[in-house]
Amino acid sequence: MTGVCLWLGEPAPAEPPPGEACRGSDIRITTIVVMADGRLRSSLCTEASLTSDRFVSWAERIRPAWDHGGSGLPVLVHRKLWEWLFIIEALSERGMLQPGRRGLGFGVGNDPLPSLFASLGCEIVATDLDVAQATEAGWVAGGQHAAALADLNRAGLCDPDQFAQRVSFQPVDMNRIPDDLRGFDFTWSACAFEHLGTIERGQEFLLRQMGCLRPGGVAVHTTEFNVSSNRSTVTWGPTVVFRRRDIDWIVRQLRHWGDRIDVDFDTGSSVSDRHVDVPPFTNVHLKTMVSSYVTTSLALVVEKSPDSPPERPIDPWRQARLRGSDAWHGRVGPRWRKVVSRWRTETGR
């Protein structure tokens, strides 16, 4: 196995022999992170949750979407599959994946979730950037953009006729959510809101998309999380990386409106949890590197307050914060950004 090992909470052991997997002493798999009522709560990607009975069951249900080679494995030890399974289970256990429920997906790309949700009877509005914006951002060339309905049922998880009846597609810029997307039972996205330009833009999306939910609705969104630092990170660019303090800020804002969100930042303790995958990538991909930071996936589950007002005004402080961030990054030219990025990488700031 190539890559490196991340050793959290204990001294690093002696370096393993060349070519061998990273190993630790007395490694045990932790249990899946749940709330007091047994439901999933916001948490980081870990092998324990990925290999839990709940997730393995859903992995089998969507096998055509990920097991293209017919491996027969219960799951792939990969963070993208974990994100899909987490979103599915979090929504299912909250009664969202039932006939007649309305769901709104952001930045769906070619993910299998709209197809699965439609097969369970949900009415889905799937959204992504329009083709011009997605092409400019490189998503089309990378095969990670949905331009039409047919792209969303490639794995055949839903009967074609039912899919056509229950799923619609709408181009949406996540920085500018249309006012007509309202009253949904649930919303979701899989590693999308870290691509909105800045940390502040991603935070603002999380708050504004709550307006798309009916009172009592559920939002489940995954993103990049900085495991190695709560001080410095990638704050702007094509992909930003959220620190714990950035997530804590979101949590405070949501709780101010009475929304329910609890976050567990346990990074896991298994060998796979401690492995940081770098090119050439291996078949263990729960943690990786973005710039100079070790990252993994974080899933956020938010239950909107049943007493929430139809619209939540954006306070002047938040507006000023967002304008200030946009103005600063707008003044920084591409050449200077590269210099700053190189300096941050070399200094770890």
* Low-confidence segments: 7-30, 137-145, 343-349
- Give the termini separation: 30 Å
What is the CATH architecture term of the domain at 32-106 and 174-315? 3-Layer(aba) Sandwich
Helices and strands, in order, run as EEHHHEHEHEHHEEHEHEHEEEEHH
Q: Give the amount of beta strand, in percent.
A: 15-25%
Taking all Cα atoms into account, the compactness measure Rg is 20 Å
How many extended strands? Answer: 13
Shape descriptor: globular
The helix content is 25-40%
Average pLDDT works out at 84
- CATH first level of the domain at 32-106 and 174-315: which class? Alpha Beta
Helical segment tally? 12
> What characterizes the major β-sheet?
11 strands, mixed
Q: Which structural class do the helices and strands define? A: alpha/beta
The CATH topology of the domain at 32-106 and 174-315 comes to: Rossmann fold
Q: Main attributes?
A:
Rossmann fold; eleven-stranded mixed beta sheet; single chain; two-stranded parallel sheet; alpha/beta; 349 residues; 13 strands
Q: Outline of this structure?
A:
The chain has 349 residues and is α/β, with parallel strands linked by helices.
Structure description:
With 349 residues, this protein is an alpha/beta fold. Strands 1, 2, 4, 5, 6, 7, 8, 9, 10, 12 and 13 form an eleven-stranded mixed beta sheet that branches. A two-stranded parallel sheet has the order 3-11. The protein has a domain at 32-106 and 174-315: Rossmann fold (3-Layer(aba) Sandwich), CATH 3.40.50. α2 (53-61) crosses α4 (79-92). The longest helix has 16 residues, at 316-331. The chain has twelve helices and 13 strands. It is 31% helix and 19% strand. It is globular, with a radius of gyration of 20 Å. β7 (184-190), α8 (199-208) and β8 form a beta-alpha-beta unit.
